[in-house]
Amino acid sequence: MAGKEKNFVLTSALILIALGVLIILNSSGVYGFDKSWPLLLIVISIGILVQRIKDIGGWFIGIVGVIFIAMKKFYPNIESWAQYVLPAVLILLGVYILFDHFKNLKKAKTE
Fold first, then answer.
1. Cα(111)–Cα(98) distance, rounded to whole angstroms?
2. Would you say 90 and 17 are in contact if contact means Cβ atoms under 8 Å apart?
3. Which listed residue, 17, 33, 40, 45, has the most CB atoms within 10 A of its CB?
4. Does residue 79 register a pLDDT over 70?
């Protein structure tokens, strides 16, 4: 695996985990993003996809950002359910990417 790709995988996973945690903090009232954080998700997604268009994490982050914008605009009552489910999915996806990355590193070292 090339050095740039390793950094990209790790960065993507950490971004997903951090975003999930920040969304939970926002939802619980500890740290608020106001109305701008869904746009932040979309901007991060664009940054990831510019580097690698096939990155599932980049697409997932962008879709989550669009979903949150749509929920606030069209379905404001669904937010109470989704405020913890989608961040949890982001955290789990980031953890999965990290474990998969380290599994592949270990496999590559043994070969």
1. 20
2. yes
3. 45
4. no
- Token look-up 């270990």 returns 106
CB 19 within 8 A of CB 97: no
Q: What's the 3-state SS for 46-93?
A: HHHHHHCCCCHHHHHHHHHHHHHHHHHHHCHHHHHHHHHHHHHHHHHH
pLDDT tens, position by position, 3-30: 566 667 766 776 777 778 778 878 888 7
d(CA 77, CA 41): 21
- What does R_g of the chain's alpha carbons equal in angstroms? 15
Judge whether 31 and 22 are in contact, CB under 8 Å: yes
pTM, entire model? 0.53
For residue 13, what pLDDT is reported? 76
- Please, which residues have CB within 8 angstroms of residue 24's CB and are 6 or more apart in sequence? 83, 84, 87, 88
